[in-house]
Every structure is written in C-alpha cells, then in structure tokens.
Specification:
By secondary structure, the chain is of the alpha/beta class. It has a single domain (about 5-249), classed as 3-Layer(aba) Sandwich (Rossmann fold), CATH 3.40.50. The protein has seven helices and eight strands, in the order αβββαβααβαββαβα. It has helices at about 5-10, 60-70, 100-110, 110-125, 140-145, 185-195, 230-249; strands at about 25-30, 30-40, 45-50, 75-80, 130-140, 155-160, 175-180, 205-210. The chain has an eight-stranded mixed beta sheet, sandwiched between helices. Strand 7 (about 175-180), helix 6 and strand 8 (about 205-210) form a beta-alpha-beta unit. It is globular, with a radius of gyration of 16 Å.
C-alpha cells in the first residue's frame, strides 16, 4: 500500500457544530449493527453511497451528504465503515508517528473489512427498489471505491482528494469517474491515473477538476467551512459531483 499524503497526516479535522438533518439508524452487517446516516427523500429511486474519510461520520461529511440530497433529490447512505472506531479527531498529527496511521488503516480499512458493509448497504437500497446507485469517497474512501470497482456495484463514482493512490487504480474502473484532487495529492500520479481513464470507452462521460488552491480534505472533515474560500471551493466540488451524477445516473 502506498503512503498517505503529507497533509492527510498533518492537518487536523475541523470541529463543526453543524446539525445534520437526516436520520441516524443501524444496518446489519453480518452479526453486528453498524451506524448508518440516511438523508434525502425516502421514495427516491436514485441513491448515493458515501465512503467517508478516516474520521468517520464527521459533521462536515454529513453536511455534504445533506447538500447533495437537496441538490439532486437523491437518497444518500453514509455508513460508519469503522464501526465507531474512526481515527481520533485529536490525534493529528499522529502521536505515534505516521506509520501508526498507515498501520491502522490497513487494519480497520482494508477492502476485506469495508466490503461487507458496502454490500449490505447496496443490498438494502436494492430492497428499497432503488434503481440507480452511485458512490463518492473522500481520501481513504476514494481508494476503497477503486479497490472495489471490479464488483460493478455503482453506475458512477466520484473520487474526492483521493489518498493511497496509484495510476493502476484506473485499470479497475468500469463506470464514469469524477476526479477532484486537491493540492495535497501527487499531481504526477493523478495525471497518470487520468491518462488511463481517458482510454476507457466511457471517457467522454468522465470529469476532472483540480482544486490546487486548497488543502487535502477541503470537501470533508479537514475543512473549516466558516472560511469563505474553503466553503466556496467545497460548494463548487459538490456542485460538480451533483451535475456528474445527474448526467450518469
């Protein structure tokens, strides 16, 4: 596994006082009940699944889900993939050093650990007669969408300030992709990934927008949305995602 971006290991999350408007409930994953945040109209036939960053169900992530639901009229599911064991908000930079964070992600955030929750969410949406499902992921979450792309669970995916990235992640992609990197990602890796995406049969449906004037995490837990620049760029990112999903779902 490649290492996390520098900013992923040094920038702490923002402590938001936003009050989410959706519902907190549970979803059965194997023998356990995982936390699940649901927002948007219950009767929508379109849905998005969000894979959060290492900070789990952070208010910024939930606020973004609320915004997308309002923009698109989609139902949005944000499960807690870490089962309440997300990375400590106060432990950035990691007190034990960067290797400890990398090791933690490999332990609790492997594809083998994430997959059962993702499958449970998709199956629940299908039972609710949702006919079109897309997904978006932040940082670690974007990597999980790349690792699971071969399962063809979604009609389109958005990858927002992705981490642990490799150009070869493009090879798994089978549906339209929106790529939204920040200044914190390796631009050479992003470009090589995108070059491969451009050779796909669905390349014309893909979207890339670079946000090189804002830090890694600007659209999720690491962003202070009381800052007008950061909030404006985050709104722009969500608008791009909104239009992308409308076009491909």
């Amino acid at each position: 596994m490649t290492n996390l971006p520098e900013q992923c290991c040094t920038l702490p999350p923002f402590k938001s006082d936003y009050r989410p408007v959706g519902e907190r409930t549970k979803i059965k994953v194997g023998e356990k009940d995982f936390d699940l945040y649901i927002t948007g109209p219950n009767d929508s036939k379109h849905a998005l699944v969000c894979i959060h960053d290492i900070f789990g169900l952070h208010n910024n992530t939930l606020q973004g889900a609320d915004h997308l639901a309002q923009q698109n009229g989609y139902k949005i599911f944000v499960p807690d993939f870490f089962d309440g064991k997300s990375w400590d908000l106060d432990n950035i930079p990691p007190r034990e050093g960067r290797p400890a964070l990398n090791a933690w992600i490999q332990e609790v955030g492997s594809w083998e650990k994430v997959r059962p929750t993702l499958i449970a969410v998709v199956e629940r949406l299908q039972k609710e007669e949702v006919t079109s499902i897309g997904a978006y992921g932040f940082c670690f979450g974007a990597k999980k969408l790349a690792q699971g792309a071969h399962e063809e669970l979604f009609k389109a995916v958005a990858l927002v300030h992705p981490s642990l990235w490799q150009p070869e992640d493009a090879d798994n992609m089978t549906v339209p992709v929106a790529l939204l990197p920040s200044q914190g990602e390796d631009q050479d890796v992003m470009n090589k990934f995108w070059d491969r995406i451009q050779k796909k049969p669905f390349a014309s449906k893909c979207v890339r927008r670079d946000f090189l004037d804002v830090h890694h995490g600007f659209a999720s837990a690491r962003s202070d949305w009381t800052d007008t620049k950061l909030s404006g760029r985050a709104r722009e990112a969500y608008e791009i995602m909104s239009n992308f999903f409308k076009s491909n779902m």
